[in-house]
Design brief:
Layout: H1 9-24, E1 27-35, H2 37-50, H3 56-70, E2 77-79, E3 82-84, E4 91-93, E5 95-97, E6 100-102, E7 105-106, H4 114-129, E8 143-147, E9 166-180, E10 183-197, H5 203-218
Parallel strand pairs: 4-8, 8-9
Antiparallel strand pairs: 1-10, 2-3, 4-7, 5-6, 9-10
Helix pairs in contact: 3-4, 3-5
Amino acid sequence: MTQSLQASKIQKLIGKRMAESKRTKPCFYLSAKADVTDLLALRPKLRKQLNVKVTTNCFYIKCLAIACEQYARVLAMIEGDNLKIPEEINIGFAVNAPQGLIVPVLKKANQKSLADIAHEEKLFTNKARDNELQLEELEGETVALSYLGPYDIDSFVAIVPPQTSCILAVGNIAHQMVPLDGEIVERRLVSLTLAADHCVINPEYAAKFLSYFKELLEKPQQVI
């Protein structure tokens, strides 16, 4: 027997916006793997030091904000014949809520400490799942992050939201054997996939941006 499910209003809206983005943005995709062994070892110490739970997603948000400062063109949008780079780095991060996929926006992320980001990420995630986010907390996104690691997804390609020019998709952290200092050792690696609008960002620039983001993850002491 065929089961019929009613799509929610938010699912219909997201579907319509993403279909339009897919039609109008000629995207290309870049993938890399980052060694986050040191980052994971640092997290328990930070919880005591900062008195807040610092998730891996908090590190992704912080490193993305820093990388966007260094490579600001990834924030640009087309306006007429020109590219406009917004003044603020506002990171939209996807949260799976009962009413559908919700994207709260962490404003001016580059001006916030890792502890500030940890507090806001927890607050927004809880509000999204309780359907308590205000309209202003869902607006102003200038760059996007999608993290499916908790669902044991190795890697994936995300669709660039209409109001941005790129989105970073982060997968599961996996144990892998890699060469290090002349030996084969076990490390923790995470898959990163950047989707970028070719009308705004060229592949070389995007590659430098992704490489810098990877470098920040692999040297987590720099972002505390």
